[in-house]
Amino acid sequence: MATKSAAEPKHAKDGFSSRKVFIFAAIGSAVGLGNIWRFPYVAYEGGGGAFLVPYLVALVLAGIPLLYFLYAVGHRNRGSAPLSLRRFSKGAEWIGWWMVLVATVIGIYYAAIIAWAIKYTFLSFNLGWGDDPATYLNADFLQVADNPGPSLDYVPQVLLLMIVVWVFTVGVLGMGIQNGIGRTAVIFIPALLVAFSILVIYSLTLDGATDGLNAFFSPDWSALKDSSVWISAVGQIFFSLSIGFGIMITYASYVKPRTDMTGSGAVVAFSNSGFELLAGIGVFATLGFIAQSTGQAIDEVVASGIGLAFVAFPTIINEAPGGAFLGVLFFGSLVLAGLTSLISIVEVIIGAVRDKAGISRRAATYIVGIPMAVVSIAVFSTTGGLYVLDTMDAFVNSFGIVGASLIVMLALSWVFRKLPVMAAHMNVHGSIKLLGWWKALVAVIIPAALAVMLFQEFQNKLETPYGDYPASLVNTFGWGMAAALPIIAVILSLLPWRGVTAVEDQGDPYADHALADGGEQA
User: Fold this and answer.
1) Is the pLDDT of residue 424 over 50?
2) 3-state secondary structure of 145
3) From CA 138, how far away is CA 306, in angstroms rounded?
4) 290: Cβ–Cβ under 8 A, 6 or more apart, which residues?
5) What integer best gives the mean pLDDT of the chain?
6) I need a labelling partner for 171 at 20 to 30 A (CA). Which of 52, 164, 305, 411 fits?
7) What residues are paired with 154 via a beta bridge?
């Protein structure tokens, strides 16, 4: 029987104070900008109400099992993504660093969108974007350059807002796991739920809201015959649960040993999906209003991403009664959701550096946070920042997140054959037992779905140059970045460990405690 390892990383003792705090933090990570501006559009395009069928199937058969997979890695091996995977095998460590690098890229550009949302929260009070929100966003606020590509022309107001975002983020992370991450999540997530619930209730009172909801929920059952709709549902679940860039591995390592991780995972997954559904109702109710007020059809006003948040919604706010109130709620919700997600993203990198280098939390926070902030501000406070952001987001989501997740599942399932010990660990205190169904899903079915997603995306981006951007931009910040991340990850895995001794397989360091409590090992 394995006993508690002397190589236990310090942060395993400095974790979340309770299961409740962990759940709030995990929900805070999962509920982000994509829940609000991506899900409604994806659902509408995927058959409206009919999309809920593949969506729920994907949640139960892909999202939750993969969440359990990642929880098992972090909770059993008590470390950041690279350390936890190395404790299974030295050959798996590089996958953890790939996840860390993906998180680094996402964190660098994610901060910019939060900065924009802060600006728009204040603009909402007096509808400061004027009568033409698209022109205001591109010409007045972001001052987007005519030629796509990086720039050295800085936009002062964007720069100052990004400094605010990074000072807050690094400050919270420097306060620690419980006092910083945990306490922020416990405050922000209820506040987000209240604000967004009020927004949804208000949007339902607008003229045309019923038309919007009919468009959102009316089922197009023929869409279920289209395999791309099912793949899209898997993709939505996958991206919205913060899967694939080390967050859930890292957060699970901060949870106390005797914790029901499978029950916690179900709560996180269903809470995240519940918020997405709430977002769909609120967004389409407001889109119904603008469609009626402008005499357009719903499909003419539907938008997603940055266009929905910073162009379509300000247009709606301009026309809606009490629009300032609607705007403050909407953009304030984006800020809260974005900050909790950004905090979790940067924590992935801090945890990995802290484990590898054996330094204090405060030192790791500054070593990671300050360079990330400098790069983020330097690139995305410029007139070319939007082009770089768009390119990096498209490629890191398609090839970084999906690729790393596919490889880690195949590696632990077929190369290192760790699924039995992972299931055994989770089953000791888990209220939902991981049996043969779970192993089949994470070893075969989910990787097959992700492989199809990856192939389709690769094919699409080869056939159609992304965004009609110059080859230099796409090759550097798109294809070049996607190819460089796993190579750099391998190099990082070869560096010596100074913080902990990452044995190849430390066994289950808490098996003795679990058995003392009457648990059984499979």
Assistant:
1) yes
2) coil
3) 11
4) 208, 296, 301, 312, 315, 316, 319
5) 88
6) 305
7) 382
- Give residue-wise pLDDT tens across range 102-139: 999 999 999 999 999 999 999 999 999 998 998 999 99
Q: Residues in the chain, how many? A: 522
| Interatomic CA distance for residues 454 and 471, integer angstroms | 21
Ramachandran angles phi, psi of 154, nearest 5°: -90, 145
- The span from the CA of 284 to the CA of 282, in Å, is 6
pLDDT tens readout for residues 136-169: 999 999 999 988 888 899 999 999 999 999 999 9
Three-state secondary structure of 2-67: CCCCCCCCHHHCCCCCCHHHHHHHHHHHHCCHHHHHCHHHHHHHCCHHHHHHHHHHHHHHHHHHHH
pTM of the model: 0.90
Mean pLDDT of the 387-414 span: 91
Is-contact 143 136, C-beta < 8 A? no
How much is the pLDDT for 233? 85
Residues 313-346: pLDDT tens digits?
898 888 888 888 989 999 999 999 999 999 999 9
Kindly report, residue by residue over 292-312, the tens digit of the pLDDT: 888 888 878 777 678 878 888
CA distance 26 to 85: 20
Q: Residue for token digits 């360079």?
A: 371
Using an 8 Å Cβ cutoff, are 466 and 394 in contact?
A: yes
CB contact set of 182 (below 8 Å; sequence gap of 6+):
16, 17, 21, 22, 24, 25
CA atoms within 13 A on the CB side of 101: 24
Distance, CA of 17 to CA of 256 (rounded, Å): 8
